[in-house]
């Protein structure tokens, strides 16, 4: 798969998240970092048919969001089924990096980093 095709596909996944997933709008950067990390990690594990460890209530909450997202990705983006595990992991890592930039690191929302908020 070319880098351009991978980027286009990652942008489709990102577009879904930006339009359909409310968890991306937490009011603090540390909340967003945890959400992005855990939900996308579990989504990747689901897409790759890997074992998922749900030891805490927090992990089960992330799993619920990840399950909905993995189901939606599978339903909407048939090309995911054609990808091998390595490709899925790569696209999910690219997705996380882009989502982190848009919702945390590149955000102009100063309240995200306000220690008094």
Automatic annotation (TrEMBL):
Keyword Iron-sulfur: yes
GO molecular function, one term: nitrogenase activity
Top-rank EC class of the record's enzyme: oxidoreductase
Organism: Desulfitobacterium chlororespirans DSM 11544
Pfam families linked: AnfG_VnfG
EC number: 1.18.6.1
Protein name, as recorded: Nitrogenase iron-iron protein delta chain
Keyword Oxidoreductase: yes
Job of this protein: The key enzymatic reactions in nitrogen fixation are catalyzed by the nitrogenase complex, which has 2 components: the iron protein (component 2) and a component 1 which is either a molybdenum-iron protein, a vanadium-iron, or an iron-iron protein.
Cofactor(s) the protein requires to work: iron-sulfur cluster
Catalytic activity reported: N2 + 8 reduced [2Fe-2S]-[ferredoxin] + 16 ATP + 16 H2O = H2 + 8 oxidized [2Fe-2S]-[ferredoxin] + 2 NH4(+) + 16 ADP + 16 phosphate + 6 H(+)
UniProt subunit comment: Hexamer of two alpha, two beta, and two delta chains.
Keywords: ATP-binding, Iron, Iron-sulfur, Metal-binding, Nitrogen fixation, Nucleotide-binding, Oxidoreductase
